Amino acid sequence: MKSRDRIKADFILILVALIWGSAFVAQRHAALEMGAFLFNGIRFWVGALVLLPLFYFNSSVNVKTEEFGQKESLWVILAGFLLFVASAFQQFGMKYTTAGNAGFITGLYVVLIPLFLSVIWREKINVVIWVAAVFSIIGLFLLSTNGNFGINLGDLLELIGACFWAFHVILIGRLVNRIEIKKLAIGQYLICGALSLIFSLLIEINSLSGIVQSWWAILFTGIVSIGFGYTLQAVGQRFAPAPDAAIILSLESVFAAFAGWIFLGELLNLQQIMGCMIIFSGMLLAQLAQFDFRNRSRFDQK
Fold first, then answer.
1. How big, in percent rounded to 5, are the helix, strand and coil portions of the chain?
2. In angstroms, rounded to a whole number, what is the distance separating the alpha carbons of residues 280 and 274?
3. What is the structure's pLDDT at 201?
């Protein structure tokens, strides 16, 4: 790999992290103006429409795509369902917490993934992961409770969402070599969007009025975050080594905190800043523990 390609890829991934972190500001705005289900339904369908040209004009030849039968369809539906649940908890949580808190707590999925793999699937994980988990718990306590016992409702919803994000990532990791990635991405977005809109019709009342106030948030998260973000991530990870990609994308939570401060005036006190730093340290430990630096291009498969 040329060093120039790697540098370009790293900058692309930094842009992805910036886009995804900034999206928490848009989600926070939308959470206060319109129903969570309606917002998610529209933005995920917009994201799917943005990706459709990729599906038709740039189909991959490296993944088996001869058939897309009932079994594959069921897996895509499951991925869409997990995405629906994770995004719903995240968006509902945004109504009661800050963009910065949501970004850091959502980022905990990188710690939860290996923990779930160990507890549920009995996979052996590095002891550093358990250290990262302790860091994350301490950091979450300081960030959400300001050092006092109890937890903010919004932060609790974000934590539940992070658990479902972890399950979603685990499932996607098992499907990427079975189903063509763009089919999987577009399919799960359509399923997530459909389920969200159905629940919006059944549960949410007078939610349509918020579309006018949140049109920019819908377009930003749908086109830029979901559509362009996914595309740029794929481009960046073609050339960036796995450790580079994982660590850079972890910056999403940091950008979320900065975006919340700049655009929403969200402030953190000293204890909360310490909590963010501890959570971020735990996230980095969890990422680094999964790589074999003797062969930097591959995951540690212990």
1. 75, 0, 25
2. 10
3. 92
